[in-house]
Write a structure and sequence with these properties.
The complex is a heterodimer.
Chain A (H helix, E strand, L loop, with lengths): L2 E5 L7 H9 L3 E5 L2 H6 L2 E4 L5 H11 L1 H10 L4 E4 L1 H5 L3 E2 L5 E2 L7 E4 L7 E7 L4 E7 L1 E4 L3 E5 L2 E7 L2 E4 L7 H14 L1
Parallel strand pairs in A: 1-2, 1-3, 3-4, 4-13, 5-7
Antiparallel strand pairs in A: 5-6, 7-10, 8-9, 11-12, 12-13
Chain B lengths: L4 E9 L2 E5 L5 E5 L1 H10 L5 E5 L4 H17 L4 E4 L5 H9 L4 E4 L1 H5 L2 H10 L4 E8 L2 E4 L4 E6 H11 L3 E6 L11 H10 L4 E4 L5 H10 L2 E4 L10 H10 L13
Parallel strand pairs in B: 1-4, 1-12, 4-5, 5-6, 6-7, 7-10, 10-11, 11-12
Antiparallel strand pairs in B: 1-2, 2-3, 7-8, 8-9
Helix pairs in contact in B: 1-2, 6-7, 8-9
The chains are: A alpha/beta, B alpha/beta.
Chain lengths: 184, 251
C-alpha cells in the first residue's frame, strides 16, 4: 500500500492536506520521526506557521537531517507554501533564519501589491489558477513556474515545491496533486 | 495581483446554516457541508462561516462543522464568531479552518491579533470590523465603541491582521450597494487586503466593490442559494471584472 508521510512540525492546518490526499484515495500519516521520513514512499512538507518555529521544530526532532538525507538519496519530497521556502538556504522571515538548504535560493518579503498575497493566481507556464496565501516568496535558480512574476514552483532533484496550496485549489489543485503523486 | 474574490458567507448556528432578518426569525437553509460544496462547485473563491450565536455549546459544534467541511471542500475558508483566545483560534485551525475572523475580542484586546498571527501567520487572521457612522461597533454591531473605523483598521494591520473584513451596518441588508467610500478609505489606510461586506443587492454593486477593493462578501444577493452564484460570476465578468478562470469539469 502506498503511503504518504506528512511532516509534523507543530501547530497548524495539516488536516486539509491529509483530507486532500484522502480524496485521492491515499492514506497519510503525520510524523516527525527521522526513520519514517527517510523511508516513506512519499513525503510532504506542508505549509504551517513561521520559518523560525518550523526550523526549530524540525531540527529538534531530527526531521531536518532526515529530510536532507532523503533528498540526497533522491527520494521524492513535495513542499507546500512554507514547505517550499524551508527547502532553500535562507529566509528573511523572523529576522533571518537558516533553512534546510536542499536547493539554491532564499526567501524574501513580498514588496508589491497587498501583503499577505491572498487569492487565486494563474500559474505559468502550467495554465491553471491555484490559491496563494503568503507574505514571503522564494528567489531561486530552481524556479520552474511563476504567478504574476512571483515564484510559484521550484524543482531540483527529487524536491518539488509549490508556493500555492494545491489542497485548497479546488478541482485544479486536486488534479495537480494526483499527477504529482503519480509521477513520484 | 491575484484575481478579485467573491466570498459567500454562511451564517451558522447549532450546526446548521440559517438565514434571518433578526435572531427571532431564523430560517434553516441547510447543511453547512452540502452548501459549502455547492458554493465551491459554483465558483466561490473562498467561504466564510460565521457562528452567529457563539455560545460555548455552539463553539464545540462549530469545530465539528469545520472538520466536516475541511474533509469535503477544497477551497479556503474562514471561520468567525465567538473567538476569544488563541486557543479558540487554534482549535478551529487545527480542525481545518484556513483562517479565523475575530471582532469584539480583538477590540477588547488587540494583542490577540498578534498572538494568533505569531502562531499561524498573518494570513490566518482576519479582523472583522462592523462600521456604523464611521465608528467601530462590537458585539454583532450592537455596541458603539467610539473608535474611528479607519484608525482601528490601521492598528489591527499593525498588530498582525492579514486581512480586514469591513461590514457597513447601515448598508447591511439594504441591498443598495456596499459603502464604497468607507471601503476605499480603509483600503488606502492598510497594506493588507480588504473584503467589502454589507449591502449588495445586484451584480453591479459587486462590480463597484471589486473596482475599489480585493474581495466582496456576498450573502443575500445569492439568496443563500449556491445555484445563483454562476450567474452572479457571469454578470460581474460581463461588466469587465476578470475573475479566476474555473477549471473545465472533467467527466
Amino acid at each position: 500500500m502506498s503511503e504518504t508521510l506528512i511532516v509534523d512540525y507543530g501547530a497548524g492546518n495539516t488536516r486539509s492536506v491529509r483530507a486532500a490526499f484522502a480524496r485521492l484515495g491515499e492514506t497519510t500519516m503525520l510524523s516527525a520521526e527521522p526513520d519514517a521520513i527517510t523511508s516513506a514512499e512519499f513525503v510532504v512538507l506542508p505549509g504551517v506557521g513561521s520559518a523560525r518555529a518550523a526550523m526549530e521544530h524540525l531540527t529538534e526532532t531530527g526531521a531536518a537531517d532526515a529530510l536532507r538525507e532523503r533528498f540526497r538519496a533522491g527520494r521524492p519530497i513535495l513542499g507546500i507554501c512554507l514547505g517550499l521556502q524551508l527547502a532553500l538556504e535562507h529566509s528573511e522571515e523572523d529576522g533571518g533564519v537558516a533553512t534546510l538548504g536542499l536547493l539554491e535560493g532564499s526567501v524574501h518579503r513580498l514588496t508589491e501589491g497587498r501583503v499577505p498575497r491572498l487569492g487565486w493566481a494563474l500559474v505559468s507556464p502550467w495554465g491553471d489558477s491555484f490559491y496563494f496565501a503568503h507574505s514571503y516568496a522564494a528567489r531561486s535558480s530552481a524556479t520552474v513556474a511563476t504567478a504574476d512574476g512571483v515564484t510559484a514552483a521550484i524543482a531540483a532533484g527529487s524536491f518539488l515545491g509549490v508556493q500555492f496550496h494545491p489542497e485548497k485549489s479546488g478541482a485544479a489543485g486536486e488534479r495537480w496533486l494526483a499527477s504529482c503523486r503519480s509521477r513520484a | 495581483m491575484p484575481f478579485p474574490r467573491l466570498i459567500p458567507c454562511l451564517d451558522v448556528t447549532a450546526g446548521r446554516v440559517v438565514k434571518g432578518i433578526s435572531f427571532q426569525q431564523l430560517r434553516d437553509v441547510g447543511d453547512p457541508v452540502e452548501l459549502a460544496a455547492a458554493y465551491s462547485e459554483g465558483g466561490a473563491d473562498e467561504l466564510v462561516f460565521l457562528d452567529i450565536t457563539a455560545t460555548l455549546e455552539n463553539a464545540r459544534t462549530m469545530v465539528e462543522v469545520v472538520a466536516r467541511v475541511a474533509d469535503v471542500v477544497s477551497i479556503p475558508f474562514t471561520v468567525g464568531g465567538g473567538i476569544r483566545s488563541a486557543d479558540d483560534a487554534a482549535r478551529l485551525i487545527e480542525a481545518g479552518a484556513d483562517r479565523v475572523s475575530i471582532n469584539s475580542a480583538a477590540i477588547a484586546r488587540p494583542s490577540l491579533i498578534t498572538e494568533i498571527a505569531n502562531l499561524f501567520g498573518s494570513q490566518a487572521v482576519v479582523v472583522a470590523i462592523d462600521a456604523g457612522g464611521g465608528r467601530v461597533h462590537s458585539h454583532g454591531g450592537t455596541t458603539a465603541v467610539g473608535r474611528d473605523v479607519v484608525e482601528w483598521a490601521r492598528e489591527a494591520a499593525l498588530c498582525g491582521a492579514g486581512e480586514i473584513l469591513l461590514t457597513s451596518i447601515e448598508q447591511d441588508g439594504q441591498r443598495s450597494g456596499y459603502d464604497l467610500a468607507l471601503t476605499a478609505a480603509v483600503r488606502d489606510a492598510v497594506p493588507v487586503p480588504v473584503i467589502a461586506s454589507g449591502g449588495a443587492g445586484n451584480a453591479q454593486h459587486v462590480v463597484d466593490a471589486l473596482r475599489v477593493t480585493d474581495a466582496a462578501l456576498v450573502a443575500s444577493i445569492v439568496h443563500d442559494d449556491p445555484s445563483q452564484l454562476p450567474a452572479l460570476r457571469d454578470a460581474v465578468q460581463a461588466a469587465g471584472i476578470v475573475l479566476r478562470p474555473l477549471p473545465e469539469v472533467v467527466t
